[in-house]
Amino acid sequence: QLQASGGGSAQPGSSLRLSCAASGFNLDYWAMCWFRQAPGREREGVSCIDGNANNIAYADTVKGRFTISRDNAKNTVYLQMNSLNPEDTAVYYCVAGEDLWVSQYWGKGTQVTVSS
Asked: Which residues of the chain are under the pLDDT cut of 50?
């Protein structure tokens, strides 16, 4: 089971840190991604990191603002989101897959709302 947390309300320009904790399976061997979906918009892949953090990818829309990381000892993946803007408003999901951008196991999402 994957459980995302850390969402909430934020003002433009501020930061939030999302966490994704896994229970029942070991994340070490899985690529982990964050996807998001905003009302009326297609689901978007935000960022991915492979099992040993050697390969990391970002969507162009978040590059330079978001940072993905993982702590395999804690079985947890993080998404540090800086310089938030209203277009970042969405439900954020953590996802496990066999490779970057491959979505096989989805966790429950966490809502992020950016507004002034």
From this structure: none
